[in-house]
Each structure stands twice: as structure tokens, then as C-alpha cells.
Specification:
5-stranded parallel β-sheet; binds flavin-adenine dinucleotide; single chain; 19 strands; 7-stranded mixed β-sheet; globular; alpha/beta; 492 residues
């Protein structure tokens, strides 16, 4: 009889690791607490609108290709993909907006228009970014770090100085570019990894290669379409997915999980548990203190990635002047970062991301309508009651209208705010974080929480808290590495 594995959480990492374990010969049951699958990438359908509730940028397509290739498949066997020509529009405070396209020549011309020599500087910057990306893909991302030696061997001793592990991204970019617009375009992606460019290692300039060389893609059905594809792969592999099934305890005997308890009273015997639910919550809630590798004190000392103020808006008219992806950067965006990482407060004049998915896929809304998704990064753990929400939403929407010079508030027919308390309630997110741990140097690679419990032999972790970290492609990589580690140590 196959050995029984339980995977907790049907986000990207859970769906991915579940298929990989099933392929290894485990009989895998995947428990998801919510009625829908996708985790952060759930879909909320209301009034004819289909809202992707979390990620919306499909980046690093080769990571998805590598993943599906492990099953002899391609991503296209599960969802259609389109490369966006107009990658995103940037609204700069006090300066004209620009659209960044997938035409690198045009992007260089744009940088030249920002500052003299900008095109050549961008070319050089992207060449370095590609080098970092290739090194990371080939030697760094798809790797398990168990000892400091693993990390030091590879990075510091061989390629460290050229990779930018020590200086900050902000300084690295600031030394090369003078114009605020160039700098903001080359640093903004860091915010997606939940960090301030001032605290992130310069290594992350590789994200500009991801953005400007590899491009921004759109999967049919949005990012939840990708999650649905992964769920189909898992079901084809013979696994069992159970939704509305919340784990509430791991019963450990002699250093091994014997049974997993669910909120509806089931106790399932297991040979292996892979947890992808919030790492901090799981360690401190599912396990008795003596089995916790990382107690609450550890998590309280980490730099948390931001939470978010999200608004899903169904607007019953077209909104010209927006692209599919839109970004707003205030002149002094450090004020916003300070309000996240230094003196936690809801940001005033916030930078924001606004998606209008209907610009690419009109089927995500009723005919002639626009499906908007507003994201404002904010510190984790801020007050978030109903009065605050309606007040902040009103201010935020006025701000968005003013920045984008559009008017849509009067045409909103579907509206939902999702923030701190929802991240906590829906995903058990530690202090309401949207993304887990920030990507500071000391929360990178070996410094991220381990993928193997130090105290419980058959308990493993994967997902955005573990190396390589935040973002959909990273969670797929993390799932692959965890599956390899399990295969090496516990093959059924
Ligand atoms: C608003 C937002 C926008 C983002 N934008 C992008 C983007 O554009 N591109 C990108 O690449 N990344 C983006 N990200 C990051 C990316 O979405 C995440 O890093 C990734 O989806 C995390 O996947 P995961 O599997 O680690 O965790 P999750 O998706 O959180 O999955 C964990 C799952 O565990 C479940 N769970 C929790 N507790 C239990 C329990 N007790 N029992 C059973 N199940 C449980 C949860 O319900 C959840 O489904 C974004 C994130 C957010 C929040």
C-alpha cells in the first residue's frame, strides 16, 4: 500500500508539491481550509465579475515550463498564455505618465528621454541583471540550504562581489541612474517581494531582467487559471483534493507526526506532512511547544513583508487611459516605505498598483464593464475596522482618480475591500501579512525558515516563507526543492 502524505494548503506551492509527491509514489491528500483553491490566487466571482484576489503578474515563464516538463507537459496544456505588448503604465507624481512596452528598443529610448546616456546605462544594467538572473537560476534558486557552508561556498567564495549580496538595491541603482523615473522603474518590482529597495540586496536587480527582458505574460482565466491548471495536474496524477478542510493540529509521537486533525473532527494517520499554510501560524498553532522549531519569539523578530489594502471593483463602464497593469509612484516613495517598515501607519499619498484585467480579457466582467483591482502595500498589524475601511477606501479612490485622471467612482456596481483581518481570517496570515517574510539579506536563502522541521522527522515546509521566497514562480521552485529533499530522505 502507498504511504500516506498530507499536504496542507492548496495555494501554488501546495498544489505543486502535491503533484510532485504523488509522482514519487506517495498517496497524497491535499487539505485546503477555504472553499476555493489557489490560496492567495483565489477567485472571487460576483455580479458577473471574476476577480483574481491576489497575484496578477505572470513572470518568469521558464519556471512554469520547467515545472510542467517534470510531468512531460507544457503550461499550454493547462492554460493559454499571451505576452503583453503594453507591459504596464507608470503614473509618476508631478510628471507625465509612460507606458513600458515589451519592445526593449522603445524602453531604452524612454530611459534616454529621462536622462542623457540613459539608454546605454540601461543596456549595461540589464546585462548585469541577466548575469545575476542566470547565476541565480542555475546555482541559487533551485537549491536546498541546510548549513551556512552551502550558502558561503557558492556565493561569497565564488561570485559574491559581482552578485551584489552586500549593498542595497537602492544604492546600486542610485549610483547608476540620476532620474527618479529610471530608478523607480528599476526598483519597483522589489515591492512585489515585500521589501523596501533600501533594505533589499542589490542582487535583486535581476528582477529588471525578469521585467524588461523576459516580459509580462497573461494566463487565460487570470492567475487563478494557473492554479486550476495545477489542480487538474494533481487530479490526473491520482491525488485527492479536499476543500473546506482545515488542519487544526499535528499529533506528534517520538518525533514524527502520527495524525493530522481537522476542524471537522477527522484524524488522519500520515507518514508525511508537507505544510504550505502560513509557516508562522502553523508552527505556533498546530504544534505543541516542544515540537516547534520556530516559536513565536522567532517570528516576532522577523521583518514581515507588508500587508495590503485591496479593493475589488466592478465598474459598469469602460475606463480609457488605463492599461492592464498600472503603477503609481509618488515623488518621495520613501515616505511610503517608512510607513511600512519603520513607523507603521496607513500611508497617505500612497503608491499603488491598479489592475484592469478587462483590458486584456473582457470576459472577466459583464460586457462593456471594467474589472479593477487596487493594491496599496501597508505595514502588517495595522488597525482595520469597518469605519476605517470605508473612510480609507473613499480617500484611496479619490486619489486613484486624481492620479490617473479618470472618473469611475460613480459607476462602481461591485465593491469589496480585503485587508489585514481578511488575510488573517482566510489564510491564517501572521499579523495579516500579505506575503510572509520580507526579502532582506538576513531573510534570504539559508536565512529563511528551513524546509524541514528541526524537531519532527516527517514534517516539511514549502511556500513563500521558505527559500527562494515570495512570488508565484518562487513558490513553484520551493515546491520542487522540497519534493527533492523528501525524495532523497524519505522515498516511499
Ligand atoms: C495581493 C497580492 C498580489 C500578489 N501579486 C503577485 C504577482 O503579481 N505575481 C507573483 O508572482 N506573486 C504575487 N504575489 C505573491 C504570491 O501570490 C504568493 O507568494 C504565492 O501565491 C504564495 O503561495 P503559497 O502557496 O506559498 O501560499 P498561499 O497562497 O497563501 O497558500 C497557502 C494555503 O494554505 C491554506 N491554509 C492556511 N491554513 C490552513 C489550514 N490550517 N489547513 C489547511 N489549509 C490552510 C490557505 O487557505 C492557502 O490556500 C501576490 C500576493 C498578494 C497577496
Amino acid at each position: 500500500m502507498s504511504k500516506q502524505a498530507v499536504v496542507l494548503g492548496a495555494g501554488f506551492s501546495g498544489l505543486a508539491v502535491a503533484s510532485l509527491l504523488q509522482q514519487q509514489g506517495w498517496q497524497v491528500t491535499l487539505w485546503e481550509k477555504n472553499p476555493e483553491i489557489g490560496g492567495r490566487a483565489r477567485l472571487w466571482s460576483h455580479g458577473g465579475y471574476d476577480f483574481d484576489m491576489g497575484p496578477s503578474w505572470y513572470l518568469m515563464p521558464e519556471v512554469f515550463e520547467r515545472f510542467f516538463a517534470l510531468f512531460g507537459k507544457t503550461p499550454e496544456s493547462y492554460y493559454g498564455l499571451t505576452k503583453l505588448q503594453n507591459q504596464y503604465k507608470v503614473f509618476f507624481e508631478g510628471l507625465p505618465s509612460v507606458t513600458v512596452t515589451d519592445d526593449l528598443k522603445a524602453t531604452k529610448a524612454l530611459f534616454e528621454s529621462f536622462e542623457r546616456g540613459g539608454a546605454a546605462k540601461l543596456e549595461q544594467f540589464l546585462a548585469e541583471a541577466k548575469l545575476k538572473y542566470d547565476t541565480a537560476m542555475n546555482g541559487f534558486l533551485y537549491k536546498d540550504y541546510r548549513h551556512l557552508g552551502d550558502f558561503l561556498n557558492w556565493t561569497v567564495l565564488t561570485k559574491g562581489p559581482g552578485l551584489g549580496l552586500t549593498g542595497s538595491l537602492d544604492k546600486f541603482v542610485g549610483k547608476r541612474f540620476n532620474d527618479r523615473r529610471s530608478r523607480q522603474i528599476l526598483e519597483y518590482a522589489m515591492v512585489f517581494l515585500g521589501s523596501s529597495p533600501a533594505n533589499a540586496p542589490a542582487l535583486y536587480s535581476l528582477l529588471s531582467h525578469v521585467d524588461l527582458n523576459l516580459g509580462v505574460w497573461f494566463p487565460r482565466g487570470g492567475m487563478n487559471g494557473v492554479a486550476q491548471g495545477l489542480a487538474r495536474l494533481f487530479s490526473e496524477a491520482g491525488g485527492t483534493l479536499v476543500t473546506k478542510k482545515e488542519a487544526v493540529g499535528l499529533i506528534v509521537r517520538n518525533g514524527r507526526v502520527e495524525r493530522v486533525q481537522s476542524a471537522d473532527g477527522e484524524e488522519k494517520s500520515v507518514d508525511l506532512v508537507v505544510n504550505t499554510a502560513d509557516y508562522a501560524w502553523s508552527e505556533t498553532t498546530l504544534l505543541q511547544p516542544q515540537w516547534q522549531s520556530y516559536p513565536a519569539a522567532y517570528w516576532n523578530q522577523r521583518v514581515l513583508a507588508p500587508s495590503m489594502f485591496l479593493a475589488f471593483l466592478g465598474v459598469n463602464k469602460q475606463i480609457p487611459g488605463l492599461e492592464h497593469h498600472n503603477l503609481y509612484f509618488s515623488a518621495d516613495w520613501n515616505q511610503h516605505f517608512k510607513s511600512i517598515f519603520e513607523t507603521p501607519a496607513w500611508p497617505q499619498n500612497p503608491c499603488f498598483y491598479l489592475s484592469a484585467i478587462t483590458k486584456t480579457d473582457p470576459s472577466m466582467a459583464p460586457s462593456g464593464a471594467e474589472n479593477l483591482f487596487l493594491l496599496i502595500p501597508a505595514a502588517s498589524g495595522l488597525p482595520d475596522d469597518d469605519d476605517f475601511r470605508s473612510d480609507y477606501l473613499d480617500k484611496a479612490l479619490r486619489h486613484v482618480e486624481a492620479v490617473t485622471q479618470t472618473s469611475f467612482r460613480d459607476s462602481i456596481e461591485v465593491q469589496r475591500v480585503f485587508s489585514q483581518r481578511d488575510f488573517q481570517a482566510d489564510y491564517h496570515a501572521w499579523k495579516g501579512t500579505g506575503l510572509g517574510l520580507a526579502h532582506t539579506l538576513f531573510q534570504t536563502a539559508i536565512f529563511r525558515p528551513a524546509r524541514r522541521s528541526r524537531k519532527v522527522g516527517n514534517l516539511f515546509y514549502t511556500g513563500q516563507y521558505t527559500h527562494p521566497g515570495v512570488g508565484v514562480p518562487m513558490t513553484l521552485i520551493s515546491a520542487q526543492v522540497t519534493a527533492q529533499v523528501i525524495e532523497r530522505s524519505l522515498k516511499p
